[in-house]
Amino acid sequence: SPVTVEFPVTGMSCANCAMNIERVLSKKLPGVLSASVNFASERVSAAYLPTVTSPDEMAAAIKKAGFEAILPE
Ligand code: 9UX
Asked: In what residue span(s) does the HMA domain sit (predicted)?
């Protein structure tokens, strides 16, 4: 079953950055069902299948795209 996660992401300079991160997560990372990035609050909310992917993989994809995710402990 899907699990949701929410965490901060830093390094966004404009609103299109948020759309870029959404695209990276939802189109390039198998197992991510949906991703929503709020530019103003600098937060990511995502639904994913824990048998397929993980917040660590999301953070790695975000970092590769030039941003920094701050995962919960
Ligand atoms: Mo805005 Mo972000 O011009 O990767 S899209 S800086």
From this structure: 3-70
Work out how many domains the chain is built from and give that number: 1
- Whole-number Å distance, alpha carbon 72 to ligand 1 midpoint, is 25
Is the complex ipTM more than 0.85?
A: yes
Q: Whose CA is nearest to atom 4 of ligand 1?
A: 17
**Surface-to-core class of residue 65, CB atoms within 10 Å of its CB (0-12 exposed, 13-18 middle, 19+ buried):** middle
How many Å lie between the centroid of ligand 1 and the Cα of residue 51? 32
Which residue's C-alpha comes closest to atom 2 of ligand 1? 17
CATH number of residue 26's parent domain: 3.30.70.100
Range of the domain at 17: 3-69
Q: What is the mean pLDDT of the chain?
A: 97
pLDDT in tens, 30-44: 999 999 999 999 999
